Amino acid sequence: MFVGDSMTIGSAGDFTWRYRMWQHLNATCAGRYRIVGPRHTLHDPTENTAASTAYADPGFPDEARRHLAGWGEGWLHMAPLIADAVRGHRADTLLVSLGLIDLGFYTNAEQTAENVRHFVAQARRAAPHIRAVLMPVIPNIRASADPAFGTECTRFNELLAKTVADLSTPASPLLLSSEPEGWETDRATYDGTHPSEHGEHLLAGAFAQAMHQGWGVGGRYTAGTPAGAVAAP
Length: 233
Description:
- This protein is an alpha/beta fold.
- The protein has a single domain (2-215), classed as Rossmann fold (3-Layer(aba) Sandwich), CATH 3.40.50.1110.
- It has 10 helices and 7 strands.
- The protein has helices at 6-9, 17-29, 75-78, 82-89, 100-106, 109-126, 141-145, 147-167, 185-188, 197-215; strands spanning 2-4, 42-44, 49-52, 68-69, 93-97, 131-135, 174-176.
- The strands form 2 sheets. Strands 4-1-5-6-7 form a 5-stranded parallel beta sheet, with helices on both faces. It has a two-stranded antiparallel ribbon with strand order 2-3.
């Protein structure tokens, strides 16, 4: 199950990094995985709702579009939803990219880290053996322009690493993904925050590398990798 904010749900006309991961899983785990989740649409900027089905590839099958992601939603919003989503859709692995919206509008680094702990506890309440890959906050253009916000992003990532180390268990392992290698805001995003096609590949590649290195899931990220992107070894 993909869990995330606007960078994960995507906007009308996007491929999304979820699509790139679907391609990767088809290439490396065909027939041995399912993508699950209670939602399947994109953000519609014209209506400001999560109602668009206008993926860049109309052939992206509905069952692979599943997710738990929302425009403007963060750890604060997903923690109360995750138990029902995991239980209802029988998720056993979570790929989570959250935090930027929390730090930008709702909570400071320490409060956001507490919401991570609440999220993990709720997920485990629904599925005691759940495993998860957590993506650090990727600084956006605001982090460069606003030093205080940039400091909060750095502080949260430090706390996230500690949280993953504290909470990971053999029965319910947590992995901290590396920040996508080669992430440059002007190339990896189309507006300073949301991933371009290049950025989508970098995000998917970072998650794929974590799963492959940590759990032996999948393999080298190569599916559709654009020139200049770094494939997972």
